[in-house]
User: What shape does this take?
Amino acid sequence: MEVNGNQQSSNSRAWSDNLGCVHVPGTPKTPRTSTTPGHEKCTFHHDLELDHHPPTREALLPNMSESYKLLLKSLGENPTRPGLLKTPERAAKAMLFFTKGYDQSLEETLNGAIFDEDHDEMVVVKDIEMFSMCEHHLVPFYGKVSIGYLPCGKILGLSKLARIVEIYSRRLQVQERLTKQIALAVTNAVQPTGVAVVVEAVHMCMVMRGVQKINSKTVTSTMLGVFRDDPKTREEFLNLVQTK
Assistant: This one.
């Protein structure tokens, strides 16, 4: 696919200028601090725009372990029996791992892996494995993510695309928000002419409970910039993603 350089830069500016209007649900527009009403006594939050955190996430383990112990009791179990004696602590550690994305920022993850490069052809990394936690039922959903972007003078280290997926998937999520957060993160990183993200996932909240449809998959997509505006560019990306 060929794109005129002047037209590409113009298109990039045009859609990038509108990014300030894009808000992803679940992401605060302004930082919450310890002086924000309702947050005076907070020691930890679940987003990356905060200026107060615990010394380490491990500092949360005692309270989380007690909560899991209470949950076991509520289920009619005996948390002191041998098989469950260490389960509350294990479960707390597992949950911290499942949600470690709350402690990761885009800037730290990219770590300068942005390079000036005169390349204006599509870059696609597909079938990135993804594991996340449904925020509605606290059960997993998992699948794969495919990301494409059209550079505008800068490219991103390829492994960083997988790192971006990890940042936002390792949180309590809904698939729709996750898809958009990944797209916006790539946009913020390299300001490309366009970004496309497709996520295909299996949700255990549909498999293990409710309708119990074990073969169902959910597919979501976010198209920004030229991927939204140009059907041919969008089609090229989708064809590349679907090619085995």
Summary: The longest strand covers residues 123-134. Strands lie at 114-116, 123-134, 140-150, 154-156, 172-173, 194-203, 218-225.
